[in-house]
Write a structure and sequence with these properties.
This protein is an alpha/beta fold. The chain has 15 helices and 15 strands. It is about 35% helix and about 15% strand. The structure holds 4'-deoxy-4'-aminopyridoxal-5'-phosphate. 4'-deoxy-4'-aminopyridoxal-5'-phosphate binds near residues 152, 228, 259 and 285. 4'-deoxy-4'-aminopyridoxal-5'-phosphate binds next to α5. This is Aminotransferase class III-fold pyridoxal phosphate-dependent enzyme.
Length: about 450
Amino acid sequence: MITRPRNEGLRNDTDAFWLPFTPMRVFQHDPLIFTGAEGMHYIGADGRRVLDSAAGLWCVNAGHGHPHIVEAIRTAAGRLDFVSSFKMTHPDALAYARRLRAFAPAGLDYVFFVNSGSEAVDTALKIARGYHHARGDGARTKLIGRAKGYHGMGFGGLSVSGIGRYKRGFGPLLADTAHLSLPYKPETMAFSQGQPADGGSLADELETLLQVQDPATVAAVIVEPVVGSGGVYPPPRGYLEGLRAICDRHGILLIFDEVVTGFGRLGAPFAAQAFGVTPDILTCAKGMTNGAVPMGGVIVGNHVYDAFMSGPPETIELFHGYTYSAHPLACAAGMAVLDIFENSGLAEQAARTAPLWETRLLSVKGRPHVADIRTIGLLGVVELDPRPGAPGARGAACAQFCLDQGVLVRASGDLIVLSPPLVISTEQIGLIVATIEQALENID
Ligand code: PMP
């Protein structure tokens, strides 16, 4: 049965909107348009439902249209539309910051609100440099990222990211960046479930890089605890601990970009708790408001905040921020999300579902075109061998096939990237996996 929503009536409406990361001419030919969403599904203009295996874009962790979140936003909108957060605020911002502090790893006690993951990353990088400046160590400006890292599309995040094709055509990025390689050895790590066992020593590369860069010039190391957009690469056991120890040894701040891994995706509030490694600065967005209102956050350690507060007079005020920081609607949505974590145990639910998700996904091994599968928590990727001479074609064909069967899966090149809402059922896991298997048997 073909269940892809049909949008013929809306095709002519696509002429004014330039979509992100979208080949416009292809899109205009066959636009994908959803008019509603509920629980695990998107709904098309014709009323057909499509199972969402991507939680929107890694963000709708509690499922679409959660009534508690909808109601919180509705109430907030009727109470206070907007207040600047420059030298003033509102009660929900204060309450939400305190609740986030309790949700975050111990020792990360101060929240700076922004409106997206990109803003969170650029803010975190600026805070890292500002921290050293406030301590009289302003020579520390270098920022170290990692191959395959995705840190949003601001110039800062792009500079530390490790995906070359996103950088081309945009001119010079931040000077003073360096990159670690991906801690991934296909010989021993392919098709592994959760953290690969072997590879903690791969963190030692940071020590080698620092000897080249001069550790006294490095401000921060930024990594996604699990590489997300770059292809879902869980960290080998011991790797994050290794980075933590080396950063400590050299007075370098460690930043975890938890825009994807935060808010339950790994069965804990953040990856930091799941892996037992606490960064100095943590960025989040996406699941924070369940995707319902744009919001991001930078949660910093006491020592980071204190350095600004006890630094020279110009650092007492952080000359950085955004008009919509701590927007009342976003704070209300954020608190409703934390209610769901507290009252419904959303992270625990993800932790219970994860083993089944991981094993079912790994069972796709052996199907045509499958080069690798990596999965941890409710994250996963099926990596396909590219069609000779046509990179990305198999990924696109697979996504198209699944959509026609009523399952939305996201293809990024030849990667089938999966991050379902955390409320996914056993049957829905089975349906997603079976549809991908069917696609692999039928494309080409
Ligand atoms: N960091 C990471 C790890 C991300 O995955 C993303 C978005 N996918 C971002 C930052 C950027 O977030 P946004 O698109 O909200 O700016």
